[in-house]
Amino acid sequence: MDGPNTTSGADRFTRISLVFVLAIELLLVAVIVVIFVPQWSAADPDPRYVDVADMPRAAAEPGVGAYTWSCGRNEEGHRNTANVVVAPGITGPPHHVHDYIGNVSTGVDSTDESLAAAGTTCANGDRSTYYWPVLRTGARAGQATHGTIQVATAITLTVYGNPAGPVVAMPPLLRGTMGDANAATQDSGLARPTWTCTGAPDRRGERYPRCDRGDRVVRVFDFPSCWDGRRTDSPNHRAHLVFPVVGGACPAGTFAVPRLRVTLEYARPDGDRFAIDAFPNQGNSPRTDHAFFVNLMPVPLMAKIVRCLNTGVACG
């Protein structure tokens, strides 16, 4: 007869079975994590990503006047698939969502008049609309639309003067376009993505950066700043506002306007990949990053900014 502290064979079998089942469950959890939440690793073979230390060093920029302001971080969650610059009045594909700051009304039904009458998230009263594709984390490679949309931890807007001479005011309703949403499959020469990390701002490149632990991912949009002096838009949404030539001077027949830079920072959870929304055939490539603006700054504010930039000082 078994004593009070004796374990029967059946009990031992039950315990062993439970341990075996638990081990199987833990193994399945590990497999799911590996499959559905790709881990961040320096050995990651995905060519879209690169260690920030391996990115090229950025060239020094000339000293010019600068004006900086804030329009928030889109804490309000203003997002949609519209593109009021390229395709006004048309709802975009669901896999290509835009983040907005500035004008609070920007959407598929926006008109110049409705935008001009709307409110803004900008502290200085700037009613312009600024937008770009959302960034997501926790997604499988090439499937960023299955990830979680990230709210930037910081967004800074800065306009700069021109190193070759004075700038003139942007006209109301001027459209600005930078980057190429189809750059992964066509070499148009229009792609201008810039990615870096807060801990290595002098390292910049076209690929998603693997930042050091604790650093934030940085995404930079540098817009063209040479206006043809006549149009606020053009058939390709680019010809009326082009980039300066080497040295910063504007091409003949164009006039320097304030050069806009938008800088976004994102916290990167350890172990999560990140990618921007893109068209299905673009593979969420970092080279497809792009952004737009429609200038709706009040005329007095624009005049103040032009005076600041042409004195060569930092203000805002």
TrEMBL record:
The chain crosses the membrane at residues 16-37. InterPro entries: DUF1996 (IPR018535). Residues 85-267 form the DUF1996 domain. Pfam families: DUF1996. Keywords: Membrane, Transmembrane, Transmembrane helix. It comes from the Bacteria. PANTHER family: DOMAIN PROTEIN, PUTATIVE (AFU_ORTHOLOGUE AFUA_6G11970)-RELATED, PTHR43662. This is DUF1996 domain-containing protein. It comes from Phytohabitans rumicis.
